[in-house]
Design goal:
Elements: H1 2-21, H2 29-37, H3 46-54, H4 60-74, E1 76-77, H5 79-91, H6 96-117, E2 119-120, H7 122-135, E3 140-147, E4 162-169, E5 172-176, H8 178-182, E6 183-185, E7 191-193, H9 204-207, E8 211-213, H10 226-231, E9 234-235, H11 237-241, E10 244-248, E11 253-257, E12 261-268, E13 277-283, E14 286-289, E15 293-298, E16 301-307, E17 312-320, E18 323-333
Helix pairs in contact: 2-4, 3-7, 4-7, 6-7
């Protein structure tokens, strides 16, 4: 099993690097600056907007970057629309034909509301990305599927609740999620703009940690299955910000004995100080840390170990700096 794990880890890490290496020589500064210079542009003339965002850029990936950055930083999330979409998707979860029909019809309504208020949710974000890309002669598709969050599609694929994009660049498909790049809803149900670049052209294995398409071909990898999607640790936007690939434990729900050693292993593609890595849990509102040991960072491969001394059920969170990046549930049985 250990040999299989090492091979699998090597395979995953190389796919991750391959995705980044595709555009490692591209400087997106100009594309990002063009997006900033066109802040607040009117959506009612999409051909003009697409032209302003892309005409001074030479490569399709830069053009798409300008479109993506502009959409993520100029469009706000709409909670009311999100609730309506969630309700309808749950209502039609057992009727895929009706769901697809409704979703296709609602895209038009969502786009009209987007044009008027510059507010939308996932369907609108994905639709706008697709339209602006089309006008720039970039092939782009809307992908519907299951978004995995702390309160949705955790244990089972309950309902299709999310939409994102696949874009074709240099004859290869890439994945991105403008909705989750743009910001988040806080505890007061207010949208907070907070651009997260981690969802832009994300490697497909990392993307599949919390995205599972209705059409499985849009996974763009042969590693993720329905079972592995649901079994894996719960990850968050910060996981994408740090470009973290959680490797072990491979499952979210674990059952161990007291004092049984658990090994944690994850890959990072950004510089992370091991002094900023911790394993925490909450007792009420109080944050407490587990004692971890054998903490090492070998070229971005971070490992450490932990033992649970006391019987019980724990929600365990992997934390880097001030951000929680993965969650596990661990049942500890007495020996």
């Amino acid at each position: 099993m250990k040999i299989i794990f090492i091979i699998a880890s090597f395979f995953i890490f190389n796919i991750t690097n391959a995705q980044i290496a595709d555009f490692k020589n591209i400087d997106f500064t100009k594309a990002d600056n063009i997006a900033k210079l066109n802040k607040g542009e009117d959506l009612r003339n999409l051909p003009l907007l697409s032209y302003k965002l892309t005409s001074k850029l030479t490569t399709k990936v830069e053009k798409f970057r300008a479109i993506y950055t502009w959409v993520c930083t100029n469009i706000s999330g709409d909670l009311k629309q999100s609730d309506k979409i969630s309700y309808k998707r749950k209502k039609l979860k057992n009727d895929s034909v009706a769901l697809i029909k409704w979703n296709n019809e609602y895209k038009k309504k969502a786009f009209k509301k987007l044009l008027k208020y510059n507010k939308t949710m996932c369907t609108g974000y994905a639709y706008l990305i697709k339209e602006l890309a089309f006008l720039a002669d970039i092939e782009c598709k809307i992908i519907d599927g299951y978004g995995r969050t702390f309160n949705a599609n955790v244990e089972t694929l309950e309902t299709a609740n999310h939409s994102w994009n696949a874009v074709k660049l240099n004859n290869k498909w890439y994945l991105c999620d403008a909705t989750w790049s743009s910001g988040y809803m806080n505890e007061n149900y207010t949208f907070v703009k907070n651009y997260n670049d981690g969802y832009f052209l994300t490697n497909p294995i990392l993307f599949a940690k919390n995205h599972y398409p209705i059409q499985k071909k849009w996974l763009l990898n042969e590693v993720t299955t329905n079972a592995t999607f649901l079994d894996s640790s719960l990850v968050y936007g910060e996981t994408f910000k740090y470009k973290i690939m959680t490797l072990t434990p491979s499952k979210m729900n674990l059952e161990v004995q007291t004092n049984e050693e658990i090994s944690f292993n994850f890959k990072v593609l950004k510089n992370v100080s091991i002094n900023k890595v911790s394993l925490i849990f909450y007792l009420g509102n109080k944050e407490l840390s587990f004692k971890i040991y054998n903490l090492e960072n070998e070229k971005g491969n971070i490992t450490f170990k932990n033992k649970f001394k006391w019987k019980g059920f724990y929600d365990v969170h992997l934390k880097i700096e001030d951000d929680i990046v993965a969650t596990y549930t661990i049942k500890v049985n007495g020996t």
